[in-house]
Amino acid sequence: MTSSSTPKVPAHPASPRPTPREGEIRAEARTAVLDFELARRYQELDREPIFPMKEYQAFARKGWLGPRAPRRVGGPGWKLAEEAALLEELAYGGGSVFAKLVLQPEFCSPLLHASAELIDRWYVPLLKGELLVGNQITEPKAGSDAAGLESRAEKEGETYLLTGTKSEIAFAKDAQAAIVYASTSPGLGARGISAFLVPQDLRGISTETFDDLGERWMRRGTITYDRVRVPSSHLIGQEGQGFTYLMEELTPERALLGLVYLAIARRSWEETRQHVGERTAFGRPLASNQGISFPLVEDYARLESARLFAWQTLEHIASSEGRGSDSDAALVKWLSNHVALEALDHAMQFHGGAGYSRRLPHEQRWRDVRSGTSAHGTSEILRFVAARELLGTSSRARS
Ligand SMILES: Cc1cc2nc3c(=O)[nH]c(=O)nc-3n(C[C@H](O)[C@H](O)[C@H](O)COP(=O)(O)OP(=O)(O)OC[C@H]3O[C@@H](n4cnc5c(N)ncnc54)[C@H](O)[C@@H]3O)c2cc1C
User: Fold this and answer.
1) CATH number assigned to the domain covering 246-391
2) pTM for the predicted model, two decimal places
3) Ligand 1 atom with minimal separation from the 145 CA
């Protein structure tokens, strides 16, 4: 959005139980949104997709990369609710890009199981914004059913020989290293999968990138490993534990992503509210037609309800140290994504022809939020997770 077309919208609402610290975080985030012109940068990064290194490093200086990363490794050690407040403000002010920068080190939290040397070499610089670490799970033949991955890591002396192809991967060319999941014990399924920290400049690695619908700055792509020699010291934690490490962060991550989608949609909702109050057709404001006001108040109710569910789930996660909230977190992400997409679609529609163009940010927000139906657990897998816990069903065709 250009500053000349920026509508005056109210500040993002505080959480249901705000603390003074949350207020400070929100105020600092709002200042950053203005100082770094994040709304303008958001649209720029869609047109010219690159990794936003300048903002990434500025966020690192503020201690915003991986806010929950533990203090023992130099992380900020924030509470979950504090991170949620920061994400809401950044998503409200600057779309998905800047909230995802904050989350990236937490997506890499399996690294916390690595040796002290690996943490010092890769995780600490990641928190400082000095480098980028990606996550490579998905493969051409294994996505939702990630336990069916085919990449192999065979021990040979002091190295593992890594062979396989990873696809759909964010930062395919931009990450200096990645957490790569491969089987060290074929036949054991998920229990045979190990995680490795793989520098992306090792011999035998080739990459290509895609042209994506949204989140274009992530420059997703395919990475092929052709008998790549990974030092044994780059095994993260124990052999066969890769999947366990991966699952640990999923629950808070899903609840937080839900709030990101909702804050993005809330921004478009506020802008649309203003637009339909000002724009006239047939001699009266658009808002005076029930065909427009009813969908908008319904969106408001859905966005607010989903947000309360998300904050309640975050409270449960925080109070139970993450245990027992898997299905709620999965449903928060699914529901928030769904209601946000609907609200963003209405925002495009009620802005008429301009809503369908890149002059306004609604279509980009829709494209970016749309990634959430596939990334970090597809909409179908999220409901499997919930059905498994709430109804005792199984998602697997084979045992
Ligand atoms: C923006 C973006 C960023 C991403 N970044 C990364 C990344 O950095 N690293 C990474 O490893 N991956 C990444 N992914 C990949 C993502 O995790 C996968 O796309 C996702 O897990 C789905 O896997 P798939 O694409 O192989 O689809 P499939 O598993 O083939 O599924 C296709 C469709 O079928 C559905 N489906 C599957 N099984 C069933 C079933 N039993 N019943 C009903 N429906 C079913 C799925 O939900 C989906 O809708 C990213 C994806 C996106 C869109």
Assistant:
1) 1.20.140.10
2) 0.96
3) 29
